[in-house]
Structure formats: structure tokens, C-alpha cells
Amino acid sequence: MRLCHRSRDEHVGAALNIQEILKCISAKDTRAAAMYHVLNDRHRRRVLGALDGKGLKTLTRLVMKARSRIFREAEEGAPRVAESIVRTPVYLIDENLIEENMRVLRYVKDRTGCRILHALKAYASFATFGVMTPYLDGVCASGANEARLGREEFGKEVHTFGAAYGEKDIRAVLRYSDCVIFNSFHQLDRYGAMARRLGRQVGLRVNPGHAEVETAMYNPCAPRSRLGVVHDEFERCFPAVAGQVGGLHFHAMCEQNSDVLQRVLESFERLYAPYLQGLKWVNFGGGHHITRDDYDLERLIGLINAFKRKYGVEVYLEPGEASVYHAGVLVSTVVDIVTNEMEIAILDTSAETHMPDVLLMPYRPHVIGSAEAGVKERTYRLAGPSCLAGDVVGDYSFDEPLERGARLVFTDMALYSIVKSTTFNGIGLPYIAVLRRDGTLDVVKRFGYRDYRNRQS
Ligand SMILES: Cc1ncc(COP(=O)(O)O)c(C=O)c1O
Q1: 97-324 maps to which CATH number?
Q2: Which residue among 73, 120, 315, 400 is the one 20 to 30 A from 374 at the CA level?
Q3: Which residues contact 426 (CB under 8 A, 6 or more apart)?
């Protein structure tokens, strides 16, 4: 009896909430986004069902605007949190911000019915998976270890793509994956039957024939790329094995907006549309910078919906960066300052070991409170403690002189930093700390000498 009453009250509450949200949307009030995100699946569907095209576009704008505001405020508060940390270097991950990104990803799912997997290669700190699992469909893995981590720590769908599986790898991959994606007809021929016998879905990665990634190192479709079967070979070999393949996968983007996806899709469709009949799914890969302020979410939603309508397949996305974009920082301390034509601050963190993409990509991370060299009063080169001459983050200027012992906060360091960090020169790995949703700071991992030693023979 009481339960009945409660559920009727909840109904009335939800109806009021929905009315309130619809009012906020028509008033272009950003509170609509927060109210939308806390509704359950059914009520979110009711909100979307009550909106026309213009209302949906407004809601999208409000979702992105609300997210931006929360991230701006978090960045303003980051130096205060950094000062409160006892030991550096430390990767400091903000659970609240990950959840904000998750909400945007789920909004794409709400609007399209697509499935979204988090790419573990970008971020695998399972201490925060608790805020990710309710929003996403699972993970994508690059091999046996990620697949196992995904199965054991994330606990939803696991899709694995590897450029080439060895005999031992494939057994572990199949044990922990729901779907295995092959990179060649040879691998499909060798392992496809085994995968199907175990009830696993089978996919094939193809080269979509178009990419706009400028750095060759990060362009999966660069000339002579080994990633994805090329169209000529696909045309020759696919018809004979079509019945064995459940879906096609492509990955051609890196930190890009949905206008690029549109052009990649045009090329993919031109090459592969005749073969999509009878497939269950198409995976659009990663590289979608969905949670970036200027990302055109409406275009992405339109593209997915049109594709699903046209081909009757499930669409998967597997972003990595977008899940934790701007949701973590690397806090470091100035250890010493030396002079050689300019002032050089030697930090307790290193580009080479703790933020390797800075050197590889290369890119310049933002340091809170800094500007380009020469813009503010005092310019310093920020450099690491390793022996590598080029272990330099960049030249930055500050309003005040940097003192030894000063804290520096490098932004956007959750993605591709923790997973890639090394102990080159015996440099210790940064601790990992999580700012929990209730505001507490939880140091979830402390690394020390043993971690360095365990990686040597
Ligand atoms: C096959 C595949 N899927 C997904 C991703 C994730 O991409 P991002 O983190 O740029 O979204 C990558 C990145 O390299 C990838 O190679």
C-alpha cells in the first residue's frame, strides 16, 4: 500500500519536473540540463518526446553550456585543491567532471539510441569506473589486458580490436570480450570460427578511405597504414566471408569535430554501403571530441540517426578522450631553478615520463595561471628532472616569480597520460588521487621503488 502511494507521488513529482524542465528549455535556462540529467531513463525519454526539433536543439545547447560552466568553475578551484596536496607529482582526477562528460555522452545515446563504449587505451583508472558504468554500454579494448580489465572492473560490454592477435592473445581476448574485431582476412580466417563457437560477435576493421588527421603518427588512414583492411582487398575477399561478420569498424579521427565525421562517413558509405545489408552494427571508432565546448553535438546526432535509418544497423562510438576530457590535472612542484640564457624551472614531473604526448604529438599543455612566453612578467622554461635534453614541457610566463617549492597545475592530464607514463631514469610514477563526488580527496594509488623494480628484470 505504502509502495503504491510512493510510486504515485513519484509519478506526480516526475510530471512536475518534466513540466519544469520544458519551461526552462523554452526560457533557455541552463538549469534545464541539470534537471534533465538526474531523471531516470523513462522520464528523460518523455522530455525528449515532448520537444520539437527546435526544442531539442535548445536542449543540446543548454547541455553543452551547463557542462562548460561547471568545467570553468572547477578550473578556477583547481589551484586551491593542488595546494592542499601533500605530495607531488600527482594525477588528480575529478569524479564530478568525469560524470559531467558521461552525461553528455549519455545525452547522445538518449537522442540516437547508439551504443557508447569507453576506450580504455585513453584512460583506465578503474577507481573512477563507478561514475562511468551507469552511463555507458561498456568499453573497447586493444588487447587481452585491457579486455580483462574491462570485464573485471567495468563489467559491461567489452569489444576488442587488435592489429594482430597471436595464438595466446586470442584465447585471452575471447575469454574476456563480447566482440572481437579483426584487422585482416587472414586473422578472420584463422580465429573467426573459434570466436563464433564461443558465442562472440565478430567484426572486421576497414579503412574508410578518408581522414583529416594532420600528424601522421596519429592518422590511422595515413598512406601505407596497417590499420584496417583497404577497400580493394575488402571488395575481393568480403563476399566469401560476409556471413561470418557481424559488423564493420573504422577509426579515422583524432580530437575532431563532427564535420570531420561527416566527411569520413561519406567516404565510408561510398566504399562500403553495398556491404552493410545484413550486418548488425557499424562502429564509428574514437577520436570524437564530443565533450569539447565547441563540439557540434546536433550534427553528430543527425549523422547517427540518418545512418541508422538508412542501413538498419546499430551504431557504436568508442571515444576515449571525450570521457575524461578536462577531468584531471597533473600537480607538480618546482624543485630548482637554473639559468642558461633564460630561467629554467626543473620540476618533479617530466614530459618524457608523465605526459609523453607532449613530446610525441607534440602539444603544449595549459598550466593554470600562466600565459605564452613573454606575455606575463616572468618567463620560464618548464622542464623535467630526466637526463633527456628534450624533456621540456615548454616556455611559460607568470605574473609573479616562480619560487622553488611552488605548485604548478597542468590541465587535461587524465587522458593518455596515466596509461602511458613510464619510469624512465627511475623517475617515480605520480600518485593517483581522486576528488570524489562528496568533495573528499582519495589517494587511490601510491607508487614507489617496487613499481620501478618490478618492471626491470
Ligand atoms: C580503435 C580505436 N578506438 C578508439 C580510440 C579512442 O580514441 P580517442 O581517445 O581519440 O577518442 C582509438 C584511439 O587511438 C582507437 O585506436
Answers
A1: 3.20.20.10
A2: 73
A3: 452
Task: Tell me the CATH number of domain 328-454, given options 2.40.37.10, 3.10.105.10, 3.30.450.40, 1.10.357.10.
Answer: 2.40.37.10
Q: Let me know how long the chain is.
A: 457
CA-CA distance, 439 to 69, in Å (whole number)? 18
Q: Where are the domains of the chain?
A: 2-83, 97-324, 328-454
* String of DSSP letters for 276-324: -TT-SEEE--S-B-TTSTT--HHHHHHHHHHHHHHH--EEEE--SHHHH
Distance 360 CA to ligand 1 centre (A): 16
In 317-368, which residue ranges form alpha helices assigned H by DSSP? 321-324, 351-354, 357-360
Mutate to test the pocket of ligand 1, among 160, 250, 251 (most ligand atoms within 8 A of CB): 251
Ligand 1, residue 218: give the atom nearest the CA: 14
Looking at ligand 1, which residue's alpha carbon is closest to its atom 4?
A: 286
Cα pseudo-dihedral 357, 359, 363, 368, rounded to 10: 80
pLDDT 10s digits, 303-344: 999 999 999 999 999 999 999 999 999 999 999 999 999 999
Closest listed residue to residue 147, CA positions, set 126, 122, 120, 127 = 120
Amino acid letter, residue 46 = R
**119 pocket-lining for ligand 1 (C-beta < 6 Å):** yes
Q: Rg of the Cα trace of the chain? A: 24
Distances (CA, A) of 98 to 104, 229, 327, 330, 377: 10, 34, 6, 16, 35
Q: Measured from the CB, is residue 140 less than 6 Å from ligand 1?
A: yes
pTM score:
0.95
pLDDT over 80 (residue 48): yes
